[in-house]
Write a structure and sequence with these properties.
It is built from 18 helices and 7 strands. The chain is α/β, with parallel strands linked by helices. It has a 5-stranded mixed β-sheet. Strands 1-2 form a two-stranded parallel sheet. α3 crosses α7, α8 packs across α10 and α10 runs antiparallel to α11. The N and C termini lie far apart (95 Å).
Length: 464
């Protein structure tokens, strides 16, 4: 029995209880791993002692196995981390090919297949405010586990995170369809995780030296999923991604929208907008970045057109447009935003001429009277506007509330006086509208990070 237990590799502990008193039996039992060999009739103390020793041995072996398993896990994790770092350096071009191949040999990682591909995975952005970095990390972890399980059935895979994307470096045979594997991953993401997952597959390569190009082309492919529905799989294909609308065509489409706006023809404007958005898509040639910049260029040209008729568009408003355009995960979102922006410009034209003049008058009033104790109510009365409406009106057109804007004007003037006059601090405070020098100093430090005396001593802002 002991021989069979040993052969099968069971971790049992055996105590023999026998009426046979031959020494040879006991000797053989102990040699084969028995904890003890007890002779009947059994003494209770001897049995308890043997059981205690058996339990102790089981605990020791269990702890030893746990320790070995932990060490193996740590070793595996360390090896995995080093492999991820190696391939990250390869795709960034941060390591020589010969050095990378040598490191792979040292890791004992043998790629037996002739082909290399890169698959980039990106979940559709989650708009729920509860989705923080921790939730995104868990989501990518789940996607990564699922991807490794699918791909490992047919190929070798090294998977790691690149920003909000997952990069899967796949070593596979010629018969393996990486697109089919990606489609399966995308399908599982929709079915099990209830998310839309896009995949970009790069150009196949025949060696480690091609991994950087495989990654770059996978990134291009993934960017082109911007124009596809959620859950798209896009394979790199250079010949299909050329721009099909020239810059001249794009410019003409933009101008038609602006002319429709200036004619105050809303129906014509919407029709021209739809045509423009088709032109942007054809001009982008599948590129997310190119479509965002074409849309931004459109808004900038529209702003110039409005400026020519006296309707100003603030620079920070254009920057907010750019940030928003670059944040969209899919082209339909960008289209909806541009249609909304066109409608906003139409509405601005209807009221914008009057509002622009009102804003100019208010700014001139502040520039002329910042030394006095001017108030929001007083400024509102200058353009015959209700103070509550004026507050919203001013914030919409300047990006600041009235008090912030007044402080900005006063601080700019204070800086000029500090740098180019010898006036005392209390005199400068009075010059820019503060009766209390301490209040002025506190406000100046909050604005510039330094007290007025420190600012003047440091010479900040002086031209060389």
């Amino acid at each position: 029995m002991l021989k069979e237990i040993g052969r099968l590799g069971y971790g049992a502990k055996v105590i023999f209880i026998s009426a046979y008193q031959e020494f040879s039996y006991a000797k053989e039992a102990l040699a084969l791993g028995a904890v003890d060999y007890l002779i009947k009739p059994i003494e209770k103390e001897l049995l308890l002692s043997a059981v205690t020793r058996a339990l102790s041995l089981l605990r020791e072996e269990s702890e030893e196995r746990r320790t070995k398993n932990k060490l193996a896990q740590y070793e595996q994790m360390d090896r995995k981390t080093k492999l991820e770092e190696l391939f990250d350096r390869l795709i960034e071009g941060d390591i020589r090919i010969e050095e990378a191949e040598e490191k792979l040999r040292l890791f004992g990682h043998r790629f037996t297949y002739p082909r290399f591909s890169v698959m980039l995975l990106e979940p559709e952005p989650q708009t729920d405010i509860r989705w923080g970095e921790h939730e995104r990390r868990l989501l990518l972890f789940a996607i990564g586990n699922m991807t490794e399980e699918v791909v490992a059935r047919e190929a070798a895979i090294v998977l790691f995170r690149k920003g909000d994307r997952l990069c899967a470096m796949i070593n596979h045979s010629r018969a393996t369809s990486v697109k089919k594997l990606a489609s399966e991953v995308v399908m599982h993401a929709a079915g099990y995780l209830k998310i839309a997952l896009s995949a970009g597959i790069g150009e196949e390569q025949s060696g480690v030296e091609g991994i950087r190009r495989a990654y770059r082309t996978a990134a291009e492919a993934l960017n082109r999923s911007f124009f596809a529905d959620g859950g798209a799989v896009v394979c790199w294909a250079e010949e299909n991604w050329e721009s099909r609308a020239s810059a001249k065509e794009l410019g003409e489409a933009r101008d038609r929208v602006l002319q429709a706006v200036l004619k105050k023809d809303r129906g014509l404007m919407r029709e021209a907008c739809e045509a423009l958005l088709e032109s942007i898509e054809r001009h982008a040639g599948g590129s997310r970045e190119k479509s965002a910049m074409a849309a931004y260029g459109t808004l900038a040209e529209w702003a110039d057109g409005l400026a020519q008729i006296g309707i100003a568009v603030e620079e920070d408003e254009l920057q907010r447009h750019l940030d928003k355009l670059q944040s969209f995960g899919k082209y339909p979102q960008l289209k909806a935003y541009m249609l909304e922006a066109a409608e906003g410009i139409f509405q601005r034209l209807e009221t914008g001429g009057r509002e622009s003049r009102q804003l100019t008058d208010v700014k001139a009033y502040i520039e002329q009277h910042y030394k006095a104790n001017i108030t929001l109510e007083g400024a509102a009365s200058k353009i015959f506007m209700n103070p509550y409406y004026f507050s919203s009106f001013f914030k919409k057109h300047t990006g600041m509330n009235f008090k912030q804007y007044l402080t900005e004007v006063r601080m700019k003037q204070a800086i000029k006086l500090l740098l180019h006059t010898d006036l005392m601090i209390y005199q400068i405070a009075e010059e820019v509208g503060y009766n209390n020098a301490r209040q002025f100093s506190d406000m100046f430090k909050k604005h510039s990070g330094k007290l007025p005396q420190e600012f003047r001593a440091s010479g900040d802002g002086k031209q060389p």
